[in-house]
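Limitations

Structures in this collection are predictions, not experimental determinations, and the ligand pose is part of the prediction. Treat each record accordingly. The example that follows, with adenosine-5'-diphosphate as the small molecule, is included so readers can see exactly what is and is not provided: the inputs are given verbatim, and the output is the predicted complex.
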Amino acid sequence: MEKVIEVKRLFAGFDGIEILSDVSFSASKGEVTAIIGGSGSGKTTILKHLLGLYDIQRGSVSVLGQDLSLLTEKEMNNLYLQMGVFYQDGALLNSLTVAENIALPLQQQSNLPDNLIEEIVRMKLGLVNLEEAYRLYPSQLSGGMLKRAALARAIAMDPPLLFCDEPGAGLDPVSLESLDHLIINLKNLLGMSIVIITHEVSSILRIANHIVYLDKGVVVFEGSTAEAIDSEITELNDFFSAILNNPYKTSRS
Amino acid sequence: MKYSRINTPGKVLQSGTVSCRLQDSILVISGSLRISGSAGFVKTIIKEIAHIETNVTAINIDELEDIDSAGVITLFYLKEKLTRKSREISIEGGNSTIRKKISLFAPDTTKKEETPAKPGLAETIGTGAHRFFKEYVFGFTVLAADVFYWSVADLFRKKSRRKGEFSKQALKIGANAAMIVVFMSFAIGLVLAVQSGGQLRTFGANIYIVDLTVIAIMSQMGPLITAILVAGRSGSSIAAEIATMKVTSELDALKTMGLDPVRFVVVPKLYAALFTLPFLIILANVAGIAGGAVAAYYNLDITPEIFFNRMGSIMKNKDLLTGFVKSQVYASIIVLTGSFYGFSVERGAEGVGRVTTHAVVVAISLVVLADSAMGLIFY
Ligand SMILES: Nc1ncnc2c1ncn2[C@@H]1O[C@H](COP(=O)(O)OP(=O)(O)O)[C@@H](O)[C@H]1O
Ligand SMILES: [Mg+2]
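Predicted complex:
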């Protein structure tokens, strides 16, 4: 199957401390790939490498078939047009309203007239159930609302490739479920390839096709969701059972 | 030959990947209606619709191959535009995937109540020679080059410029500082004249208070006080704003949306500072001289009339010019220093406070240094 992401033997560190050791994995087109692992295991660090926000020190990262370390700034910007990103802390621009935040990529990257953009923004807010936040500033939103607004911005352009860093954290179960449905819809209807970092086992079981399990900067498992559930790997078992009290399998540790 | 309208039989309107034609009273859309092609299509079709006399009763999308969310909105927009009087137009046909996308992305017609907007107040207050050169001198130079590049490039690229940001910043950096600049300059002009007035009186050289005040204020104090106040207000808030944006990944988000943070955040502030500082300096000069005139009147019995008559013969065009040059130099220093420290923040909120403090101290120091240098040059 066509790969949208291929990471090979990636190492990374800050101030001499190694954060990622020999990370390799891939994500296929049209699938939901979940990167899971404890906090501090290096998930966000991987994401920032995938986005070209960190220089690659060792190893290689290719996104949508392009090796990031070979791209010029202009080529990188063209690649960005095909990606939507949901950042862990939302990263909405505080100086703009929620609507202006979502309109920003549309204004910058399309020639659509303003009134159409406004309609698109309303629709995207509707998709995440946040119509009421249209004129609010990010500082006026609750944590869960911020997450949904950030997601609306990430999907503003219907990007072929969507990255989400813990979109479900802090959401109530109902919002979480509708978020999962949205992700499934985006995948099925628009053929989006989605890379999602998450802790929510229920979400993972609902939406993920492919799982990459990270432990202290090392990939200890990569495979399909079914394989992950059946895996003999202790850490992975613990992960599934710790949160869900795994009905599929009892923990061995 | 006359250009044929869409209501000419057999006419097919083509725009990018989309085409449409009018079949009896049904608008048939075919091809691929996606965000990249929607803009052109909408503009073309809306122009045409104005000329259709017959009522369109439906939009048929049987021949539509692909649609995305912006396409769905475009479709509904079209539907609304075509709806005349109370006749509802339907969107008919389309394969099952397209229908599903339409139902997922259909605009919400029952718009909810909106809470009125309130402005978000997100303002935080905030070794070694080799390293010094590598991190500071080099980093600062790179930033300055980047800012310079974008501030020129921005003039020629209208498209993705931030609307309204210049005036917002001009208000924040310039207009909001006017009050304090006026008060401070007035006070300094007043005190300066009172203190030197005593000396002049002992020599019976009262009238020279005018020369002294005007020269001191226009060539030194006015520009300097303004720059120090703006450095304190805006240098710190620029650093805090950018640093906050960095620690909350807002700068990363800008980059991955294909927007350059320097252009998006720094350039409007630079323009605003370059534009407003000259006016602030003029205000400072006027207020400072007025302060001097008040002191001269009460202390040395020099009436305003005498004061302003003499003033006219002392003021030179050169002073206005140097004031302007200084304003541009100070504006650049303040915005660049604030931005540089903002971008240099490490992780965490405590980093924001630290770089904010550094930004103010360094900006004020650089302003004073530049003032000394220019004082010697323009002497
Ligand atoms: N910019 C940075 N500078 C120094 N250390 C960092 C930086 N970013 C992340 N780290 C460290 O790297 C490790 C992994 O962080 P992160 O990728 O954010 O973890 P996760 O997203 O899995 O919770 C943590 O120990 C964190 O402290
Ligand atoms: Mg993280």
